Amino acid sequence: MRLLFPLLVAAGCVVSAPVFALDAPASPPAEKPLKNFVTSVEKDGSITFRLYAPAAKAVSVALGSRDPIAMQRGDDGTWSAKTEVLKPNLYEYYFNVDGFRSIDTGTNAPKPQRQVNTSLILVPGSILDTRNVPHGDLRLVTLHSKALDSERQMYVYTPPGYTDSSKPLPVLYLYHGFGDTVGSWVLQGRAPQILDNLLAEKKIEPMIVVIPDTETDVPNAIAENFPAADRRANFYPANAEAADRELTEDLIPYMKKHYRVRNEASGRAVAGLSQGGYQALVSGLSHLDTFGWVATFSGVSTTTVPNKTVDAVLNEPEKINKALRNFTVTVGSKDQVVGKDVAGLKATLDDKKIKHEYHEYPDLQHEMDVWRPSLVAFLEEVFKK
Question: Domain with 218 in it: what CATH number?
Answer without folding.
Answer: 3.40.50.1820
